[in-house]
Amino acid sequence: MAKVALLYPPVTDPTSGYHSLSYIDSYARAQGHPAADLVDVNIEAFHYSYSPAGLAWLDQELAAPRDYHTYGNYTLNPEVVAAHMLRVGDPDPQRVRDAVATLQDPERFYDYGQYQEAVDGIIAWQNCMSLTGFPGQFREGFHLEAPPMLGVGSAKALTDHALLSRLNRPYQSYYETVLLPRLARGGYDMIGLNITYQWQLPFALWLARLVRERLPGVFLVAGGTEVSDVFKSAAERSVVFQVFDSLDAIVVGEGETAYVELLEALDAGRLPTMHPNIRLHPRYGAVRALPMLHYEKLSTVPTPDFSRLPWDQYLSPEPFVYYSPSRGCYWNKCTFCDYGLNTDGPTSPWRQDTVDTMIRDVTELSKFAKFIYFSVDVLAPATILRFAEQVVDRGLDFRWGAEIRLEKYWSDERCALLKRSGCTAISVGFESANQRILDLIDKGTRPDRVHQTITAMSKAGIGVQMMGFTGFPTETREEAMDSIDFLLEHRDLWTFGGLGDFVLTPGAIVAKQPERFGITNIRRPPGGDIAPALMYDEPISEAAKDDVTEAKRRLGAGHYDRPWLGAVDTPHTFFYHDRYGTAVRRHLERDREMSPEDEDTPFVVNGRFIPQPDPAVLSRYCDLYAVPRSAFPAGRLAFRRDDGPIFLLPKSTKLYLNLFSEPTTLAEARARAWVLATTDIARTWQTLIRLRLIRRHTTARVGGCFTAPIPLRPAT
């Protein structure tokens, strides 16, 4: 029978294993096929980067002269490159080893000071790694900040070998010395790549090219959400296999039965032409027409087996698994939505498992992982309630979270039942707090119901993560302010979240019926022949944009974005919700406040001063990192915090920061600061702590037992 390796490419969340590969592998095994080898390339490549071999390669790379501006037929703006490079310090492999150990430790992980130091260390490490590719390509450590020609969804750029080679350069040594030799030794008949997120695409394309060169006879296939998005977003169908030229086939849409068809075809020595979700490369010639598309029957999908993922490598203290008991959305009306391979609706057709099946699955999954996240578009309220009742009746002990609709269904009593069943946090797309905008979205809710639901959830001790956006077509400044004011007025009822910006996607009802929403001149961005987002003209929301963006700053940015604590629906956010409940936000905010205990707490400087940047470079920095230009007054000293952000500080600040060049208590620093003749030293300390220019010194950074990198797990 066919021997298969399934790869999960960079760059994506390193805190937990994703569920796609486990789902299709479990389905195939239930049909009698042997298990595939699952290789999480994303997490393996990260750990390799600070191994002895990875460090030797990095030293060689950073010592070599290079041109950061010209890549084949493309040129990057020198000011943009210089702005990204402001955030890059010196590589510190010991710190990244300590950081990994902290994030995997069940005690230190929940000490927020140690947590911050660990995340800062990993972000700083990834900033250094970006110098081997495109400076600034790793935002928050594991989110791709693609150069403009790649970011717009250009097939020309995504097939430019010089660009892809440079972007993948941080991982090239791992590819060449670990991954490709392993695949060559494996004797595989088929290698599959799961591409879930847009920022994985250029890495997956380069990996496919390398595998094709090394193993020309292997059947190479890719599937996942991003493959489907390329398929449905392509300006012309011919563009799809220009992008996926190294592949033999792609899977468009859901993958369980398509994967089995691929295995059966390989076993029979034929081409996989029987399944409508499989699209063969045109080099195989025309095949018979098939219906479009196939949607899986959830009753045939077995309990996913997550045990074969490398859980000892993820940057979390315990497993966190994703579980999908429904597909599509039961509401399926929101005019902005465009998710999955929809036909005439915003999402895929709605299907949901029975409560009995859900109980069977979580009973099994909870033996392996304490945390289960319902990775679905939305769960029906009555189903959630019946599920919670059975969890309580059976005495099952696990923690869970999900995305739900804000229905009036959620009374105090029902929310209390959810909490008893293990629900730690939920996510809600409230979208807007203005009724006219909600009606245009066809959200089917009212602001007073939103308030009622989040009050009941918070009262029950369930963390509420709020998701919304401004800039919906024809939204005025005043209407956007309704959403901002709503979140500010009810800040005690939600933990994390905020307001993003509206993005128009091709399959959304807004794009299909533009006259209804007052938009004109819908177009792709220049060169964006597979662009997932469209440009358009709409004067009302555009005129309000700058004022609204400035007003949204009042909501306060979280300490970190994905994949870290503080971002919506990340594993780390759920872990902290479980530990600290609905007080989690206040717990984190205390870390930025000075307390009486800090008089005897050692603090240490959290960064270093750097040469003064050129004003044009600072201007670019503001554009790239959404920093107000008012934050960079002239005549100040430039300071880079350990995780990369730049601050322009009054010259006197250097004297205060020098007091903390070694771990020093505030009392000791106060005693030495009298010569600085300040009238309000406490205010100075508070500013330094709030901006994290100094941090509480922890004892987690030690040598010895934390110096060895986690070994790469061989394929089994």
UniProtKB/TrEMBL annotation:
Pfam families: Radical_SAM. Keywords: Iron, Iron-sulfur, Metal-binding, S-adenosyl-L-methionine. The keyword S-adenosyl-L-methionine applies. Residues 127-273 form the B12-binding domain. Its cofactor is [4Fe-4S] cluster. InterPro entries: BchE-like, Cobalamin-bd, Elp3/MiaA/NifB-like_rSAM, rSAM, rSAM_horseshoe, rSAM_sf. Residues 315-561 form the Radical SAM core domain. SMART domains: Elp3 (SM00729). The keyword Iron-sulfur applies. PANTHER family: ANAEROBIC MAGNESIUM-PROTOPORPHYRIN IX MONOMETHYL ESTER CYCLASE-RELATED, BLL1977 PROTEIN. This is B12-binding domain-containing radical SAM protein. It comes from Dactylosporangium vinaceum.
